[in-house]
Amino acid sequence: QKRYSITLLPGDGIGPEVISVAKDVLKLTGSLEGIEFNFQEMPMGGSALDLVGVPLPDETLAAAKNSDAVLLGAIGGYKWDNNAKHLKPETGLLQIREGLKVFANLRPATVLPQLVEASTLKREVAEGVDVMVVRELTGGIYFGKPRGFRTDENGEEVGFNTEVYAAYEIDRIARVAFETARKRQGRLCSVDKANVLEASMLWRRRVTAIAEEYPDVELSHMYVDNAAMQLVRNPKQFDTIVTNNIFGDILSDEASMITGSIGMLPSASLGSSGPGLFEPIHGSAPDIAGQDKANPLATILSAAMLLKYGLEEEDAARRIENAVLDTLNKGLRTGDIYSTGTKLVGCKEMGEAVLRSVDSQVHAA
Ligand code: NAD
Ligand code: IPM
Ligand code: MN
């Protein structure tokens, strides 16, 4: 019997709804695969602010660091939107990414055959799309200094941030991306704004240098504005994309829509050692929170990534992935992926259906 400790961070909005479902899926999968999970739920984001006054309590970060993997729902909400920066839920999220040193964020956008109808793109454009976005997660403009507010010489209020990358930060994310591409179709597209930004000029130079270590991977470069356009023009041209923190944030939301919904996209955030952080790419969706409307599949698939990338439990991961496909084959859909002829269900019912499918998989194929 293998044992793992998992820190659960439900967070805010739909976070607790999707985490509750994903936890049940992990538990059942574990019991069928000879794995015992020891779950510890900790506060973070807005709920931590309300409880103890900070978005990432020390105890939460310590628990996360001491566990084998961390599964996060989502954080944020209108209530805290006007808080000072250090008292924002989002700051807690950046702190835990930084605290766990998870610099590499893998965001797979796969168009499942069952969901082609849910894509906003035409069938022939969407069908078969399988893009892995490798997003740098602990650097760039999100963390760069100087940053802040000041008053300029005309008495005008100014807000400012700094896009900054050190060579070692680019080198290590580039290596993760080349390794990732090597296991896929062997094509890596590095996305930057090297025609304008110095941080991108260095990015392109370093990625090109690291490519020497990976002669089997075909490297191309693209400016981010063109990449945003190409993603909706012909997404099948992409295999693996590597990009900085902010471009990766934006392009992965865009890529998610090709797959039918942002409610489908999971992610894995990994460092060079220590526990990984696994979370859906979507936010706390305050517009649908508390209504049992959230699509839990992005979080369930994040739990599968936790098993695969965090614990190297590939059979268990595959069991969950197959259960998701099986559930979609049965025609169940939450509102965000609904199309005519399918059955509209809520978050809980979708979760229960996935549980049944996890259970009914005699052999994890
Ligand atoms: P969002 O991703 O929360 O929602 C965008 C839209 O997608 C909304 O219409 C929402 O209803 C829908 N949506 C998102 N997830 C869904 C799901 N699982 N099922 C069905 N529909 C879903 O982005 P936003 O509205 O820009 O941000 C809301 C809050 O979430 C903000 O406070 C933001 O800072 C925060 N946020 C947190 C994370 C995170 O925790 N990782 C990520 C993004 C945004
Ligand atoms: C995400 C979110 C976060 C980000 C925010 C909430 C800080 O959009 O996880 O994609 O920008 O990284
Ligand atoms: Mn985002």
What does this 3D model show about the protein?
Belongs to the isocitrate and isopropylmalate dehydrogenases family. Keywords: Amino-acid biosynthesis, Branched-chain amino acid biosynthesis, Leucine biosynthesis, Magnesium, Manganese, Metal-binding, NAD, Oxidoreductase. Catalyzes the oxidation of 3-carboxy-2-hydroxy-4-methylpentanoate (3-isopropylmalate) to 3-carboxy-4-methyl-2-oxopentanoate. The product decarboxylates to 4-methyl-2 oxopentanoate. Residues 5-354 form the Isopropylmalate dehydrogenase-like domain. Homodimer. By secondary structure, the chain is α/β, with parallel strands linked by helices. Helices cover 40% and strands 19% of the residues. The protein has twelve helices and 14 strands. Strands 2-1-3-12-11-4-5-10-8-9 form a ten-stranded mixed sheet, sandwiched between helices. Strands 6-7 form a two-stranded antiparallel ribbon. α1 (15-33) packs across α10 (297-310) and α1 runs parallel beside α12 (347-360). The radius of gyration is 20 Å and the shape is globular. The two termini are 21 Å apart. The model has no long low-confidence stretch (mean pLDDT 97).
